[in-house]
Amino acid sequence: MPYRSIIAGADSAQADVAAATSAATEAFAGFRATSPEARADFLDAVAAEIEAARAEIVEAAVAESHLPEGRISGEVGRTTGQLKMFAGVVRRGDHLGVRIDPALPERTPLPRADIRQRQIPLGPVAVFGASNFPLAFSTAGGDTVSALAAGCPVVVKGHPAHPLTGYLVAQAVTRAVEKAGLHAGTFSFLLDTDPAAGPQTGIELGQSLVTDPRIKAVGFTGSRGGGLAIAAAAAARPEPIPVYAEMSSINPVVILPGALATGDTDALATAYVGSLTLGSGQFCTNPGLLFLPRSEAGDAFLAAAGRATAEAVGATMLTEGIAQAYEAGTEKLRSTDGVSVVGQGTAGDTDAPAPQLVEAARLAGVTDEVFGASGVVVRYDSIDELLPSLDSLEGQLTATVHATDADNEAAAQVVSALELKAGRILFNGWPTGVEVGHAMVHGGPFPATSNSLTTSVGSLAIERFQRPVAYQDVPAAILPEAVRDDNPWHLARRIDGELQLP
Amino acid sequence: MPYRSIIAGADSAQADVAAATSAATEAFAGFRATSPEARADFLDAVAAEIEAARAEIVEAAVAESHLPEGRISGEVGRTTGQLKMFAGVVRRGDHLGVRIDPALPERTPLPRADIRQRQIPLGPVAVFGASNFPLAFSTAGGDTVSALAAGCPVVVKGHPAHPLTGYLVAQAVTRAVEKAGLHAGTFSFLLDTDPAAGPQTGIELGQSLVTDPRIKAVGFTGSRGGGLAIAAAAAARPEPIPVYAEMSSINPVVILPGALATGDTDALATAYVGSLTLGSGQFCTNPGLLFLPRSEAGDAFLAAAGRATAEAVGATMLTEGIAQAYEAGTEKLRSTDGVSVVGQGTAGDTDAPAPQLVEAARLAGVTDEVFGASGVVVRYDSIDELLPSLDSLEGQLTATVHATDADNEAAAQVVSALELKAGRILFNGWPTGVEVGHAMVHGGPFPATSNSLTTSVGSLAIERFQRPVAYQDVPAAILPEAVRDDNPWHLARRIDGELQLP
């Protein structure tokens, strides 16, 4: 067997949750005390170790995910870029959120004490990676790197769809832990090492990880059912813990009339189907629902989108289970009252089902996510008909608007409705690309995520794994570096409520 | 009947949840669109209206809470000061958390889109105030003001222990809403108007408020049982929502040897008992557990604390129910194996039970909160015996250390242990005062709160009621003011990851 669990730096035949979480707890004291520079260097080292193992990681990930080599190779770059971005965030130190309210000994009627606040890491974090991004949202993906950046040891539950990829990445992280001189428990990787026992073993492993009292937070990317099960288990613990689950989204697209009046309708429709079918539609940001004007131009768009879909060929999906769920979901859509097929592509093979585009007479019954290249078009006559439809949607990761300046009045109303529904609103593009940056939000109201107050992509994600602590009249000699008067880490600080740069 | 519910600005005989939340939803669109200046002016106006009604509010609150007039009068000032502080926070605008990653059209292999992030309010918020702070943690207290500051309409469930106080404050807020020209649904106040039906009616009212689909977050201050019930109801909704419950804390105090070696042990013990019995001990930050060196000086401290407790007289508690729970809790402590009474004061009357101080041979069985003037002392021989005890504690709002420079080595270890347990660590003082400022944390790990990532006192509390939204390539003409290039609100912004002051 070429891959196993890695617990506290050593290969293990058993996915021993208690051993991994105990090691993580032991590692926590030292890891949280690392200076920004040391912790950032460690993140850079993880990136370097992944880069050094790039060839074998890419080979494994292509074989396990059926995704094209170019896509996987790009995802390695995205993963290491993400690590380096968080290294930069840690070096800058703004995430420490330092606030100082100096003492006011002369204040009447009561003097004010000296109060200083910083953010500290929560403790060991459990990470459940995604099937569809075997690198960027998995073993050393966004959840792992933001938890490590915050100073939290991480225990990853390896994804059964890409065990070797996960193992190779975990080895790279483990090498970086060792070279940085960190406690080996800083990172562990648990793999269901008994494939004969079937997926149930993996679910049990996940449950025992989430309910282990040493785990203090969870990052998850996957299905709504999986995310809700983990959130329920975490809430039922004697000490409930936060779960950041990125789950389900159909990513509505609104085409406003102007976008059809001036542009090349065929090209717009083709670009839409391109986004819909990219990577077999296996993106959490896949545009599964499109609102289209009921007009001649709308008819032309729909016909062109139908033709483009008919020309599309299914590519092998990530797992058999995902392909079967896609077949069931698209079949259910086709048999829903008021739904007609606009275009259907060609299946590649049994694990590469055909892309599908349908038109639905009404929104009710067609808003469940079908993971894969499945699109639903709903027509509207006027902005007054459109807005209540947008208001009725569940929470989303993204919402897209196609419009020109002529649409500005309607577009402003649409944005106002959509910002209550989605974490990211984009214009005249497609949602399937998620930039890793400081302003990105990959989040949104339930059921897009289990916690709409944050993001799982971008530098804000670090805040999920920290909590504030106030230090009142703590002697200077034992104050943490972050809140000392001499500001040894050159941090931006909020003094008496006012931001001051270093 | 002199007081009733206030729904959308009008007196109502019924505590009609749907009417209040519908009005709040209608108010939300306009309220969230207010400029920082307009919203801040509104908060200042609430403070002014409360100040204008000070005399009748103080009279009602003293009568209903049995707390002394000086304390209540001070609490009015704290409440209005808190409103003004949040007005300042809103005017400054840092809570909008603006981040801009400018477009990089020339970037290879792919150009970067223009991405801008701001925080937006969650929507209508339900607030359950505390019994023990009828003003500062109630109708227009910390939860209400931070939600309003974020741009969320608020529906308060009036506390049955101070209905008239709540009604008078709600009238003041309502007058400010009206004068500011805001939608009347911006603030509503629901009171169980059928006292004959008993407390069950109030619990049902609370449940229907929390489970109303128009409510998007909850602020709560009260018992562990009450907070857990509300958190469970919120988690079971079709759309789960965040609950910020401040619940249970015994606020450990650690006396290190140096504090007994140099100071006046009698004075220290008297000050401790003063904090323990202040306001009948009815503070969430009441120091209910004290770790004391097993030494001669420790014996002297304990004897002095016992004498001070014996001299203390019980004052009437907030409600009969609270007094009964205190009697039951102190009785249970006395009958716990290994517990001996160190000092017992005098009862005032049946609703003013006697303060009590006990010594416990071990920590197990004595760490449940007894709301009121009940203290438990546990002795320790060495720092090596103390630290595991601290590690075994549940989450706390505060942790206090008494020490001198001679204790620095031990104190650093104690701080390192306590910061994982408490939201605020203070030295050589008492935890019962909670400063309203920018650096304050009134929060902490479960069960001190249901969400350790935030605070219910201080300006950081506003972040509980906001979520981030990213705008990608949104046309300048319809971008929200907060993220426009010309920065009309003069906000601090993070450009490409770097903080820039206005």
TrEMBL record, chains A, B:
Residues 10-443 form the Aldehyde dehydrogenase domain. It comes from the Bacteria. This is NADP-dependent aldehyde dehydrogenase. It comes from Nocardioides albertanoniae. GO terms for molecular function: oxidoreductase activity, acting on the aldehyde or oxo group of donors, NAD or NADP as acceptor. InterPro entries: Ald_DH/histidinol_DH, Ald_DH_C, Ald_DH_N, Aldehyde_DH_dom, Aldehyde_DH_Superfamily, ALDH_KGSADH. Keywords: Oxidoreductase. Gene3D superfamilies: Aldehyde Dehydrogenase, Chain A, domain 1 (3.40.605.10), Aldehyde Dehydrogenase, Chain A, domain 2 (3.40.309.10). The keyword Amino-acid biosynthesis does not apply. The keyword Oxidoreductase applies.
